[in-house]
Amino acid sequence: MGLSLRDLAERSGVSAPMLSQVERGETSPTLVVATRIASGLELSLSQLLRLDEGGAVTIVRAAERRSAGGRRDGHRYEVMTPALPGQRAELSWHELAPGAATGGPDDPPMHEPGSRESALVQVGALVLVCDGQRHELAPGDCVTFDSDLPHHFENPGPGTTTFLAVVTAGLRRS
Q1: pTM, entire model
Q2: Interhelix angle for 16-23 vs 5-12, to 10°?
C-alpha cells in the first residue's frame, strides 16, 4: 500500500505516535484502535488480525476454478485465484472466439477506482480498447493499464485467442 505512518494516522484517526508504538510492539491496541487502524488500511478487523485465514497456502485445482461465460457470446473465462477475504488481486484465464469481445464501447468500467490490470497474450491476436484508444497485441505481449477506465478486449483474428489477466485493487483516488 505504501502508506507512511502520517498517512495512516490521517486515514485512521489514530495518532502517529500510537501507530508507531503498535508497530514496534511496545503497546497493544484496544479493539476500538485496532478497528480504526484496519479501516485506515481498508481492511476488516479480522483481515488485519488474520483471523479469517485457514492457512498460508491456498491451492485452486483446475477442476475447482470458477468458470463463467462472458457478458458477450464467444467469451469464456475462468477465475484461477481463490475468493479470499481481503485479497487484492485476481488472476483469470480468457478465451475469445474469432470476432468476439469481452465487452463493448458503451459498457461502464467493471473494476473499483484505482484498480490496475495486466494482460498477457498467450495465443492469437488481441486488441485492448481502453478509454477509446485501440492497442494491438500479439502472443507474448503484456499490457498494463488503469482498469477503472472503460475498456474491453477484442479478437480481430481468424483463430481463437487466449490470454491471462491480473486485476489488482488499488487505493481509491480522491
Answers
A1: 0.68
A2: 120
Cα-only R_g, the chain: 20
Question: Angle 23-24-26 (CA atoms, 0-180°, nearest 5)?
Answer: 110
Q: Are 165 and 119 in contact (CB under 8 A)?
A: yes
The Cα–Cα gap between 38 and 134 comes to 40
Cell of 1: 500500500
pLDDT in tens, 77-113: 999 998 776 678 899 999 999 999 999 888 888 888 8
Q: Which residues of 153-167 are buried (b: 16+ CB within 10 A; e: fewer)?
A: bbbebeeebbbebbb
Please name each of the domains of the chain with its CATH number. Answer: 5-49 (1.10.260.40), 62-168 (2.60.120.10)
